[in-house]
Each structure stands twice: as structure tokens, then as C-alpha cells.
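Q: My collaborator sent me two sequences in one message, no labels, and asked for predicted structures for both. Can we handle them in order? The first one she listed is below.
A: Yes, handling them in the order given. First sequence, followed by its C-alpha cells:
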Amino acid sequence: MKPLPKKPPRPARKDVQGTRQRRAWPAAERVPGQTGAGAQTRRKRIASEADPGERLHKILAQAGIASRREVETWILAGRVQVNGRTAQVGQRVAHDDKVKVNGRLVTLHFTDRLPRVILYHKPEGEIVSRDDPEGRSSVFSALPRLRGERWVAVGRLDINTSGLLLFTTSGKLANQLMHPSSSLLREYAARILGDLPLEAQQRLCDGVQLEDGSACFHTLEDAGGQGANHWYRVSLHEGRNREVRRLFEAVGVKVSRLMRIRYGPFALPPRLKRGQCLELAPAEVRHLVAFLKERGGDAQTRENYAPKTQGPVFSTPKRRPAKDQRDL
């Protein structure tokens, strides 16, 4: 009998799209006789060892789900799952992990992603809070909408104070800009009622005792004025609650109007009108991150980093329903 012809070799298996050959896991990382779920578990463990990931509560906070403290309470309550299993406090997650909150899949954002930064000209009458029992207008309702992220305010301004307010999608960057170790300079234009004698000006620069400790202005300059109203430009390296107003009140002077005109390397752009935003370009954000890392946010080196802030100025649809973004 003639031998049967040999069958031709089977073609390589295709993936779902049918265009690429299926890749095999490296032989050094395969276990003899182990296939299926066991091999998949081993591959995940090896991948997790190569990429330790980031803490779960931090990643969920960056995704705009809630604050870190709220996320921790959710984890303790068993409302968060990672790869189908109940999450634990302090657990780390990597890029390929599947995270669900209350059964819904969450899009994760890791710190290697470049954050967004915007400058906002806050008008008087808005509060820097998402929840207000009195139903007052919030700055967050005037900001561009985000998907899967949330805006984090860099410091606060009280309801009667206007001027420059910074927002970013990175909690880490916001903490760097606010932390006392960065010592970023905050500059304000203050209009006061009445006179401010030279003796009172010297006291404000030397230091005044407030309820929460001693405080002083880094600089105090006369900016002119007429009649009972007089303007001063003041600066300080911290941002305690109503600190500028309380300093003037400590020497018997009342502030009738207050506007923040600078925060660290950022000055309030003249073309940025009340209620409008200006977003930094990606190159400027990278420069800012490098500046804070190298200089530690030293306010005296602000000349070394001066953002151009020449991007498009835009308002929210609530304020300008015709367009989301508009060049001025």
C-alpha cells in the first residue's frame, strides 16, 4: 500500500481581528502543565510585580469619584471591587486591573498622565465648594465639564473676594501648589476705608498676632486712591482663612474690596474677564511641574518661570450659551 500523504501544517491561529498572530507567553514564565486560569493568574502576578501600581483610594479620587477619605469608607463597606474581588484598604491597582464601584466599571487615571490646569477669574458672590446648604452659586458650576475626572481647587477665596483662582485635575499638583513648603507668593489688591498710618503699615510687615497665630505681609505697597477709599498691593506666603482681611482689621482698618492678582508664577491676565477660564497648554503644564520639582515652588524665583497663558479664553455654556470656547 502506498503511504498516505502527510497533512499540510495547520496555519497559525489568528486573534479576534484575524490580522495578527496570537502571541505566546515567554517560555521562561510558563509553568509546565499549567494552562487556563492558573497560567492567567501567574501572568497577572508577574505583571503586578513589574508594575506595583498606585493605591486604590488615590486612583479613584483622581477619577473624580469622591475624595480619598470617602473612597476609604466605601472600601471598608465593601462597595469597591478589583478584578471581581472585594477591595481592601491600602490595595494597589495597575493599568490592567478592572475596578468597579457599586457594580459600575470605573475608568482609571494614573499619575503618568499629564494633568490639566486652568486659571479662573472668580467674581464676587461665588463660593469655592461643591455642596452648599444655602444654594449659593459655586465656582465649579462655571468650570468646563470633565468626564471621568474632577477639578481640584488650589486654595480658596471667600465669597466676597474676587480674582485669580487655579484649578487642576491632579490632586498631587494641587497639594504641591498649596503646601507651605512651596512658599508660593499670593498677591492681592486691597481697597480699604480710611487711612493706614505708617506705624500700622510697619506693624503689618513686622507681624500681627491673630487668633490662629502670628501673621504678616511679605510686601505692602501704596497703590493710590481718592477720598475715603485707598488701594494697597499686599503679598504673603500662606493662605489662611480670610488672612488679608483679618490682618487689616487687626490694625483697625476695614477692607471694602479684595482681589487676588497673583498666585506663585501666575498673574491674573488682563484679558481674562470675570467668570472666564484660561487653560494652560501641555508644554506650560510640563514646565510648571518641572519648576515645582526643581525649585520647590520658591516664590522669589518666579521670574524663572513665566507662563505665556496665551491660550483661548473660554466661558461655560451657562454664562455664554452661544459657544463653549471663544477667542477674545
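Q: And the one she listed second?
A: Here it is, processed independently of the first:
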Amino acid sequence: MFDKHADSLFILMRTIYTMSKKGRVMKKMFNKIKHSMWGGIWFLKPPDDVSLDGYRIDHVIHYTDTVITIFFGIVVLALLYFIIRYRDRPNHKAVYDRGDKKKYIVITVILGFLVFLSIDAVIETMSFKDLKEAFWNFPKDEDVVRVEVMPQQYAWNIRYAGADGKFATDDDIVSPQNQMHIPVNTPVVVQMAPYDVIHSFYIPNFRIKQDATPGMITTFWFQAVKEGEYEIACAELCGNGHYRMRGILTVESKEKFQGWLNELALEAQDTGEWDDWLSDDSGSDVGIPQGWGWPWNKEM
């Protein structure tokens, strides 16, 4: 009798364990699907957001994807219904309709306004709210890192102000091509102007993509919240070597960042020539341009 109860208890415990294990698997699958639907496009996980305001871009994209998917599903279901409802079959006579009756016009206008108000109007509202609150709201604090970036075929040139705090002076600090360092949890304001053609400064992990247009100085800002190394890409087809235009953004502590700047400043004093930084595999076809840089535009 005892053995029977023991066997039954063992079977019950094994069943519970199996169900709980399956439950964990199902929960894991559900969470993965949920994360894919709300965390990316077409079930692909996006790059980790390590910026202060990157979530704003994600929200706009997620909303756009969700609403468009809903409308797409409605259209597909409507098409299937009409295909079945008005299919060719015996004893069924087709009726020609121009679709210009008043009720059809009213329905079309209502649907048009519905799409406009639920997609265009909402996205515009979200976008201008983000621009006003974040992307156009440049930091006014003293604790701001200012950087000048000059893209060229096919490399990124980065410049920091020297001890005098001014740009386009003799003590400016120019980093090795394609290497940009910034401190974590500190606003970074960038002014960018291209050397040759149109480029686009793109850091997926920061949700930043800013065009560099010849003849213009473009200003934007961002802030990192996590240390690490992240890819800088050019998102504009800028020539045959476009694929080589890859840089590295290093986010580090303020102490390490300042130490890196001090090291570059000492190297510049020892050599007196910034050209020594240019290696054969830098990706640039013309080398580092001489005397590039501009006084910081405070009006931007």
C-alpha cells in the first residue's frame, strides 16, 4: 500500500516538474516573442541603447511599427473578405459600381482622417516633443565636452580644445583618425563639417544619425550612460571606399578620458607633427588634412 502511494506521489511530482519546466520554456518563448515585437523590427533585437535619450527614438519607431502593422492586418483581412465574398460563382451576376456615391466618399474621407490622425499626427507630435525636450535642448552646463568632427573619404577626424578651451588654436588636441573618446554621464556637443562630400555620422547604440553637408557646420549633442566601445559608421554612400569608413567611440570614466587627452597633448608636444598618427590602414585616401578646424560657433 505504501509503495503504491509512493509511486503515485512520485508520478505527481514528476508531472508537476515537467509542467513547470514546460511552463518556464513557454514563458521564455513568450518573453522572447514579446521582446521581439516591442524591442525591435521584424523580430530582430536592436543594438543596446546606451544613450540618455535613445529611448525616444525607439518609442517613435515602435509606435510606427505597431500602428502600421494593425492597419496592414486590417487591409489584408478586408482583401480576403472581398475575395471570398465577391468571388466568381454560378448564378451570381457582377454589378458595376463607379464608387462615387456619397456614402463611399464619406467612408473614404473618414478612413483617410483616421490614418492621418493615428499615424502622421501622433508621430509628428511625438517627434516635435522629443526635439523640444531633448535633441534641440542643448546643455548649458559648464561640464560639457565639445568636439569637432570632420569626416572625409574615408575616415573620421576628431578634434578637442586644448588648455585654452578654444578651437582652431595651436594647442588643439587631434585624436588618431577614427578614434573618438568621451566621458560617461557627460553631455557631448559635436560640431561637424565635411572635408569633401556628404557623409552621415551614425552611432547605432546612441540612436544618432546626423548628416554632414559640405558648406555647413552641423551641431548636435548626446550623452552616454554606459562605458564601452561602440561603432561609428558612415550612413551615406560617400564613394567607392564607403565600406571602410568605420570609427570607434570609446566611452570611459572622466579620469581615463582626461588621461587620454593629456597623453595626446604630450605626444603632440614631443613630435610636433600630427601626421605621425596616420597609419597605412587608417582608411583615408588623402591623409589627414592640414590645418583643419574652425572656431567654435557659439550661436548654434
